[in-house]
Design goal:
Order of helices and strands: HEEEEEEEEEEEEEEEEEEEE
Helix content: under 10%
Distance between the termini: 56 Å
Number of strands: 20
Shape: globular
Length: about 150
């Protein structure tokens, strides 16, 4: 029977269920497949976003995703880490601007801020700090190519 229901039905139902759990989600955002979301009230997903399946949102601090951002499968959003020197926990938010692309299996660590128009390659690990628009790849994620629209020269 499930095969006869339109795909849109499940997208709308899933969005409704996430809203009930406390996720602040735009009216046309799409979360596809299963997600692991700890502390859903700390997750903000803007309008027209697409979040692919099996992503992990740790959410000890807020994670916000800008409009028209696409997130590949199995992307990890970690908002906690530890400081090797002081042996203390580090908790920081993750902010992703509008019109970003994040490839599958990428990892974003606490304090990562992606400017609008940023692309993160599959399997890249993005460390804390502000990352201007461009294409990032590697471990740790490094700027490989600045955005053609970047005015900061």
């Amino acid at each position: 029977m499930v095969d006869f229901l339109p795909f849109r039905f499940f997208v709308d139902l899933r969005r409704y269920m996430y809203r009930l759990a406390g996720v602040r989600i735009g009216p046309t955002a799409c979360l596809y497949g299963r997600q692991v979301i700890n502390f859903p009230q700390r997750l903000v997903i803007a309008d027209q976003c697409f979040i692919n399946g099996y992503c992990l949102f740790e959410n000890a601090a807020e994670v916000s995703i800008g409009a028209r951002t696409y997130v590949g499968p199995r992307v990890n959003f970690f908002t906690t880490n530890h400081d090797d020197v002081t042996m203390t926990n580090v908790v920081a938010e993750i902010r992703i601007g509008a019109d970003c692309w994040i490839g599958g299996n990428a990892t974003l660590l606490p304090g990562c801020i992606l400017e609008s128009g940023t692309t993160v390659a599959a399997c890249a690990v993005m460390l804390r700090g502000f990352h201007r628009a461009g294409f990032y790849a590697g471990v740790p994620g490094k700027l490989k190519r600045p955005s053609p629209h970047d005015r900061a020269e």
